[in-house]
Amino acid sequence: MKVIIKETPAEGSIWAARYIAKRINEKAAVSDKPFVIGLCTGSTPIETYAELIRMVKAGEVSFKNVISFNMDEYVGLPEDHPESYHSFMHKYLFDHIDEPAENIHILNGNAPDPALECEKYEEAIVKAGGFDLFLGGVGEDGHIAFNEPFSSLSSRTRVVTLTRDTREVNSRFFGGDWKLVPAQAMSVGVATVLSSKEVVILAFGSKKARAIKDAVEGPISHYCTLSGMQNHPAGTVVCDEQAVGELKVSSYRYFKAVAEAEGE
User: Fold this and answer.
1) Is 80 an annotated catalytic residue?
2) Domain 2-261, what fold?
3) Distance CA 93, CA 90 (A)
4) What is the domain partition of the chain in residue ranges?
């Protein structure tokens, strides 16, 4: 696992956006196959998406040959609800870039058969060729996507029940009332994320510090699903200084030295 440490969330977000654009351009230069990317929601990736939008408008990258799959969606929330992840992604990314509508995939939280919807989603990812890169965030308890603590590290896309803690964290998008946050969601699994050729996880702020410590320095455990990244051959966690505040000094110095040596 590689840890990129930037001074601020803005610097980390820009680093991530430029890294994604670099990977898209590198594949486009040698292949006509689409670049397949996994995308996340929440406040964490907003600045990364803003930089990608800027790059698309500046002609620095194109999403015309990109296929995207979002990591999750609430069960039972109408697609046009302002807090659905369909609405979020169009507001903060899709409405501003050149990705064809038919290349955009988001789980249908109102599917008549949720289990079948999840199964078909996994099949669609495989049919597309699998992820070239997965962009994710991490929860305060170390979860990735909606894979709450004690989710199987071999899990695939499925319906999950959200903990009260997660609903309370997300209640800021629902007028501060955690009871208005749907109790269930559809989510890609830990194994779905880790099957990607590359995984880039964003972690900003002091509230993520314990999760980063557990994921980087702790054992691989279903208690902290992000810790599964330790076994990934190309996993990167992009942090600001606050998010690495609980790492050992020796760990911090190691990651900073590696990044400096590699020009990152």
Assistant:
1) no
2) Rossmann fold (3.40.50)
3) 5
4) 2-261
